[in-house]
């Protein structure tokens, strides 16, 4: 594992995957709404124009149309901002896709504060995991970096059923490398530590590792677990890693209600685990429009903020 190298971009992973899959998967089609350049679909649109469909602002129509492609034996990848795709199209996702258990892949770009780099608060999505997790048949994946995003996309192309993939916008720090092998439904322990365990997902995995470094310098062993597969979540793995530490923390660029932390709390309750759990994420309020680093700092989701919150807990 290496996490101190040049930055990559998760959306570039989507672009690279589509470029490769356009040649390898003859029945793949891509549906996109608005901002094609920001979504990483440009190369596919140029090279495979007969399999690319742009819906402009008709994001609801796009999702419904994907159901038609699916019943026609096409592998549809549906791409848009996570805030638009999940909340504006909830009825279509629920009834047109999940109810029929269709093989459609939903790609939600710029979740959480990662959208702050391109536009205003309207694009910030802190409820997408909560919305998608209550839908039967839906799977949810959230990669930590470029390499995990590409591996997850490859997995999704082979797996059957509705799947929602969260992709952070902008540059994301590198956690893995080109040798990374994605394991279906597994929570992966990246760092050992018996004093405390951080369960992190998405672009919060790298900050979790850096926070663990800070505590290690103080003689405190902090474990870090990457939970890239949010539904179905690795209940067995969560329990295994949690009992190895005295306290637990969940860390996510999502609301504190209905995300990774809520799922872990539910696992603890279901299995009678009496262990302190601190859920760190976006507070139960609407954020502002500002630069991502400023918003992360304000809400205590940058490295220093997460460190301070855990320190207070300990």
Distance between the termini: 28 Å
User: What general outline do the C-alpha atoms trace?
Assistant: globular
Rg over alpha carbons: 19 Å
Give, in spatial order, the strands making up the sheet with the most strands.
3-2-4-5-7-6-12
What's the CATH class label of the largest domain? Alpha Beta
Write the layout of secondary structure elements.
Blueprint: E1 8-9, H1 10-24, E2 28-32, H2 36-39, H3 42-47, E3 52-54, H4 59-71, E4 75-81, H5 82-88, H6 90-98, E5 104-109, H7 128-133, E6 139-141, H8 146-158, E7 163-167, E8 171-172, E9 188-191, E10 196-200, H9 205-216, E11 222-226, E12 229-231, H10 235-243, E13 247-255, H11 260-270, E14 277-282, H12 292-298, H13 303-313
Parallel strand pairs: 2-3, 2-4, 4-5, 5-7, 6-7, 10-11, 10-13, 13-14
Antiparallel strand pairs: 1-8, 6-12, 9-11
Care to describe what's here?
The protein has 314 residues and is of the alpha/beta class. The chain folds into two domains: 8-172, Thiamin diphosphate (ThDP)-binding fold, Pyr/PP domains (Rossmann fold, 3-Layer(aba) Sandwich), CATH 3.40.50.970; 188-313, 3-Layer(aba) Sandwich (Rossmann fold), CATH 3.40.50. Helix content is 39%, strand content 21%. It contains 13 helices and 14 strands. Strands 3-2-4-5-7-6-12 form a seven-stranded mixed sheet, sandwiched between helices. Strands 9-11-10-13-14 form a five-stranded mixed sheet, sandwiched between helices. Strands 1-8 form a two-stranded antiparallel ribbon. Helix 4 (59-71) runs parallel beside helix 6 (90-98) and helix 9 packs across helix 13 (303-313). The longest helix has 15 residues, at 10-24. The protein is globular.
């Amino acid at each position: 594992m290496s996490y101190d190298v040049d930055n990559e971009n998760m959306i570039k992973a989507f672009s690279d995957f589509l470029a490769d899959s356009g040649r390898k998967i003859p029945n793949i089609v891509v549906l996109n709404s608005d901002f094609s350049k920001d979504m990483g679909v440009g190369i596919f649109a140029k090279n495979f124009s007969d399999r690319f469909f742009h819906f402009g602002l008709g994001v609801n129509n796009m999702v419904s149309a994907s159901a038609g492609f699916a019943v026609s034996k096409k592998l549809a990848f549906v791409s848009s901002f996570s805030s638009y795709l999940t909340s504006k199209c909830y009825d279509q996702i629920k009834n047109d896709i999940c109810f029929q258990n269709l093989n459609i892949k939903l790609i939600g770009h710029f979740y959480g504060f990662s959208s702050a780099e391109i536009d205003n608060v309207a694009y910030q999505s802190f409820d997408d995991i909560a919305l998608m997790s209550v839908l039967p048949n839906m799977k949810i994946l959230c990669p930590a970096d470029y390499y995990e995003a590409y591996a997850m996309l490859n997995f999704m192309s082979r797996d059957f059923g509705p799947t929602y993939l969260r992709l952070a916008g902008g540059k994301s720090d590198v956690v893995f490398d080109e040798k990374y092998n994605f394991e279906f439904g597994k929570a992966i322990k990246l760092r050992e530590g018996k004093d405390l365990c951080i369960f992190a997902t998405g672009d919060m995995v790298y900050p979790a590792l850096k926070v663990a470094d800070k505590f290690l310098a103080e003689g405190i062993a902090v474990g870090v677990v990457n939970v890239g597969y949010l539904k179905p979540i690795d209940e067995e793995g969560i329990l295994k890693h949690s009992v190895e530490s005295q306290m637990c923390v969940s860390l996510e660029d999502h609301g504190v209600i209905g995300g990774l932390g809520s799922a872990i709390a539910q696992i603890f309750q279901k299995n009678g685990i009496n262990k302190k759990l601190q859920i760190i994420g976006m507070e139960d309020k609407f954020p502002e429009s500002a630069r991502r680093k400023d918003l992360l700092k304000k809400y205590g989701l940058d490295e220093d903020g997460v460190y301070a919150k855990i320190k207070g807990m300990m």
